[in-house]
Amino acid sequence: MVPKQNGFAQWPSRPEAAYEINSRLIACFLNEGLLRTSPHTCIDYTVLASGVLIHSHFGIKPDHQIWIATRGAVMPNKACWHQSDFALPLILRTTSAGLSDPSNVPVPSEVAAVARRLFTESVDDGPWRDVLVALDNSFENLTAWLQVAATKSRPTLDSRMINWENAVFRGHHLHPMGRALVATGGLKQLDPSQVPSLLQPPITFIAVDRGSTRITGPFRTLLKPLLDQFSLPRLLPNEVVLPCLSQQLPAIQRHFPSTRVLLHDAFTAHAQASLRTVNIPSEMRFAYNMKFALSCTISSVLRTITPWTTCLGPEISAVIEDAVTEDTWVCKEVAAITGSQKDFSAAKNLSCILREDLEPRALALGQTLIVVAALAEKPVGSSECLAALTFGLRSSGQKKKWLRDYAAKLIHAVLTPALESGVCLEAHGQNSLVRVDKRTKAIVGFCFRDFGSVKCHTPTLRNRGHQLLTVLPACWIETDVEEEGWDTLQHTMIHNHLQLLIRGLNIHTLEAWPIVRRQLDNFFEQHTESESARRMHAYLTRPIVRYKALLRMRMSADPLDDIFVNAPNMLQVGSDEKNRNCCPPYARDEVLPSPHKMTLRDRILAAPSAYGGPMIKELICDVHYWFQNEWHFDH
Question: Which region is the signal sequence (predicted)?
Fold first, then answer.
């Protein structure tokens, strides 16, 4: 038997969904230091394939093993694993069942169960059960999404923005639970076959007592043109009308007893990639998208919207618009409504944000807006991603040139507001839109949205004449420590956004990351007189960086833990400098220095918790690799 690449003869398929989730899961086990790996012949002698054995830090156990094929030779000390490094088959060995069938792909919870036997750390049973449920839910949902994907035509530059949003089927490329959707707050759990129906969610109009709400901006005035298209019942004294996702009604009624349903399922909207932000049908001629609270955990996060976000939205949008470059657009949040309760865990269930719809502006200029996450998607049955197919990138040289130009524009768009104004955007693939000239296929700029997790370095921002006045106590957006914002840039722009495209384009990492590094260096060479630029450049290119440990965060007994791991910096790939990618060995009691740790903790201690508890802990773990001295990168 020979190994299969990550493609299948028959689409859609449960094996493809299982492979997708399992490969992300195994990458997390390795990158987050939970397990080790060694190059190893297949544990099933009938399989002629190169691969790796996943094992404990204390060595190989003969009774519980995980083996997976790889897409090429693997250095013994390889770091920074990605799902695209793996191939099929994936084989398990247990004492009770022996070897799994190499022609079948195990379900993710089976892989996780074997992995737990290999952990050298204890994991609480409660969070672990939640992990298993989320893994299998993500797997079942992804199967359904792939079935939908098989029926969709490939979007083009003439397609509407929503067609590109709906081309994001596989979810977060680094997160094994990226397609998990678990209902909370009284919402009905959707069967996996129903999950794709969220692309066209029904919208309901409700009325609530104004005293139970907190309104930011001209919410009622801006909403009126939409409301005027419906015959709604008269409002009672001191009521306000607002739209909500029909699915969210049980959670709203639980926390807002005054809720009256004015018109159930008034119209059907078109959901963006996040599922909770929707486009209003074009025939309604409404100038705004709507972002709604949704009491479901998608990947790792409960997708409600706190008052911290709703109250600051219009002000931070204006600040960001002032900070970005001339060719960068901002989807400004212009008004919002949320609950008025002191307990934000109740208030956040009502929220609705009105956000500018910039597609008409793009169309008027002969441009199209494409959510970046869609560009890395590979249509069912295709070995090429939508970026390659859309821009005609047929050769390795064409892909590398496109990546060079893309990275240069992205780095300029994201780092300029960070350097000049202290505004660090959360520029991952779902928050970033690329503006493309439909005639020439040239990338003319970027557009950014969703500012609830932006980091603003307060001293730099004030030096530019801005002082945020609508920040609620304990809001995490402001910081006096510039590295805290730079971590956001590292994680979202480099680790997520650019890696997403590099992997989607199938450019060898030893060729791709030096291209990105050159564009980063070029940007800072234009700011040689700035001491802040020198500090930022050194920080972003340091040998060892911090990345969020997505799996550890789900395994934590405290859902508010922000857990990080040490990892070699991908911007160092291709360096000839000896030991440049050296990472310190794992030490159980050692924590990564965090200059802003106490500052963050002090802010959270003063906050009304979104989960009913008083504090968010920041836990930082070193990666558990017991490698000797060097870290090696290879595709």
Answer: none
Relative to beta strand 562-568, strand 618-621 is parallel
Residue 583 banded pLDDT, cuts 50, 70, 90: very low
Query: Angle 14-31/108-118 helices, nearest 10 degrees?
Result: 20
Q: 60: part of which helix (H) or strand (E)?
A: none
> What does pLDDT average to over the chain?
88
Strand partners, 66: 54, 92
Tokens of 617: 């802990």
Q: Which of 247, 11, 6 is nearest to 145 (CA)?
A: 11
Is pLDDT of 16 > 60?
yes
Map tokens 């928050």 to a residue: 431
C-alpha separations of 240 from 185, 205, 235, 260 in Å:
23, 10, 7, 10
- Distance separating alpha carbons of residues 138 and 468, to the nearest angstrom: 39
User: How large is the angle between the packed helices 482-489 and 531-540, nearest 10 degrees?
Assistant: 50
The pair of structure tokens assigned to 491 is 């994680």
Contact 380, 145 (CB under 8 A): no
Domain-by-domain residue ranges, the chain?
Answer: 14-129, 184-357, 387-541
89: cis peptide before it, omega within 30°? yes
Task: Report which of residues 221 and 71 the model is more confident about.
Answer: 221
- 250-286: per-residue pLDDT in tens? 999 999 999 999 999 999 999 999 999 999 999 999 9
* Whether the Cβ atoms of residue 562 and residue 596 lie closer than 8 Å to each other: no
Per-residue pLDDT band at 241 (split at 50, 70, 90):
very high
Please name the residues in contact with 525: beta carbons below 8 A apart, sequence gap of 6 or more.
none
What confidence category does residue 80 fall into, taking pLDDT thresholds of 50, 70 and 90? Answer: confident
- Reference 7, options 506, 396, 509, 391; nearest CA is 506
Q: What share of the chain is helix, strand, coil (3-state, %, to 5)?
A: 35, 20, 40
Lookup result for tokens 């709400």: 213
Which pLDDT value is given to residue 620? 33
Encoding tokens for residue 400?
């590398």
| pLDDT for position 537 | 98
Burial degree of 5 (CB within 10 A; 0-12, 13-18, 19+): exposed
| Residue ranges of E strands in 56-190 | 65-70, 86-94, 98-99, 181-183
> Which class is domain 387-541?
mainly alpha
Three-state DSSP at 571 gives helix
Contact indicator for 230, 263 with CB cutoff of 8 Å = yes
Closest CA to 204 of 237, 228, 230: 230
Helix (H) or strand (E) holding 517, with range, is helix 509-525
What CA–CA distance (Å, rounded) separates 424 from 617? 22
Output the six-digit token pair for 502.
């590099």
Q: Give the pLDDT of residue 76.
A: 64
Show the tokens assigned to 253.
């009624």
**CA–CA gap between residue 580 and residue 541 (Å, rounded):** 11
Residue type, 81: W
Bridge partner list, 185? none
From the number of C-beta atoms within 10 Å of its C-beta (0-12, 13-18, 19+), residue 447 rates as buried
Give me the phi and psi of 405, to 5 degrees please: -65, -40
The pLDDT of residue 598 is above 80 = no
